[in-house]
Amino acid sequence: MKKLLSLVCLIAAVSASQNSFSQVKVDSAEITASVPALNDFHEIIYPIWHTAYPAKDINALKSFIPQIKKSMAAINEAVLPGILKDKEADWKKQLNELNVTAENYYAAAAKNDDDALLDAAEKLHHDFEMMVRVIRPAIQELYEYHQTLYIIYHKLYPEKKYDEIAALMDGLIQKASAIVKYPQDKLKKRLGDNASQFDLAAKELYTATVSLKETLNGNDVKKKDEAVQRVHTMYQDLEAFFR
Q1: Are residues 124 and 154 in the same domain?
Q2: Into how many domains does the chain fold?
Q3: At CA 15, angle to CA 177 and CA 175, rounded to 5?
Q4: Are the beta carbons of 241 and 138 closer than 8 angstroms?
Q5: How far apart are CA 20 and CA 165, in angstroms?
Q6: What one-character DSSP code corresponds to residue 193?
Q7: pTM over 0.85
Q8: 3-state SS record for 13-47
Q9: For 60-113, what is each residue's pLDDT tens digit?
């Protein structure tokens, strides 16, 4: 339930950030790190894992099969939003695991193999958690930075709309600053010995973001392109700490 609430909070954060993109036409779903079909699957996983599984209620576990099949069909047909396209390979890999587990669940129920069905229920819950982990933003601050960067890199930069990029830079700098200020204790807990490297990379991203704003005020198109590419690459390197 906490994970579902977190996803709802992320969606709310997107709505709150739309004013920053008022001059750019973009569907809010495109910059929301969420897959509705996966969110809906939680409504089935929750009673399986928290009620039927601990009670070893085999009949209840079997009764969920039609709902599982319906949800699996929806998840298999789901298209990742633009902001999650770089997660596509990981998503497909984990989705394959989830499909195998679902088939094992159906087979165990058909064979009346209670132990196998309980094992499959446990694995189904685990694989669902892994699917959520694939698309879940590492930290909220990094996610919010990415929302703006996505607009810049995929909507404005291809058409060389440097003036419109410049209009977003103050907000992007604020978001880069928020990443630098991420609590060290939480960072240490998440990344262990890599926390200091992340901190250094976050400061470098902030510096590069400020530099991008300054470069956009100039007239050198080549330098503008290099600055945009540098910020994008540095964001990717920073996000990779959480993979």
Answers
A1: no
A2: 2
A3: 5
A4: yes
A5: 11
A6: G
A7: no
A8: HHHHHHHHHCCCCCCHHHHCCCCHHHHHHHHHHHH
A9: 999 999 999 999 999 999 999 999 999 999 999 999 999 999 999 999 999 999
